Amino acid sequence: MNILRNLKALFTPAAIDRSGYWVYIRCDDCGEKLRTRIDLDFDLSDQYNDTEDEINYFCRKTLIGSERCFSPIEVKLTFDEQRRLIDKKIQGGQFISEEEYQAE
Ligand SMILES: [Zn+2]
């Protein structure tokens, strides 16, 4: 029944950008808003979770603003086997929503 399940997955909303995940952040130092696209096919590395029977995917990115300060902001994301986001951490900034990113 895996084929049926895979077909169904193709038609979920997540299929719109199935291979990418956008992250929106604001720099703690200067307030500059940044965004980056995580490529779920290329940017993730395998990582076994605590029980070692499932694989999670891990991604670390460092962003540096271009307008005001040049403080690095480090983003760490963990995805489950289906590449759904299950944990996110940030240093040097805050996560914001896409709406907040667009608003000015
Ligand atoms: Zn900054």
Fold and architecture overview:
- The protein has helices at 2-10, 98-102, and strands at residues 20-27, 33-39, 45-48, 55-64, 72-79, 85-91, 93-95.
- It is mainly beta.
- The protein has one domain (17-102).
- Strands 3-4-5-6 form a four-stranded antiparallel beta sheet, with no helix packed on it. The chain has a three-stranded antiparallel beta sheet with strand order 2-1-7, with no helix packed on it.
- The relative contact order is 0.21.
- The structure holds zinc ion.
- Residues 27, 29-30, 32, 65, 68-69, 71 line the site of zinc ion.
Order of helices and strands: HEEEEEEEH
Whole-number mean pLDDT: 84
Ends: how far apart? 48 Å
Global outline: elongated
Tell me which oligomeric state these chains represent.
single chain
How much of the sequence is in beta strands? over 45%
Domain count: 1
Keywords:
104 residues, mainly beta, four-stranded antiparallel beta sheet, three-stranded antiparallel beta sheet, 2 helices, 13% helix, binds zinc ion
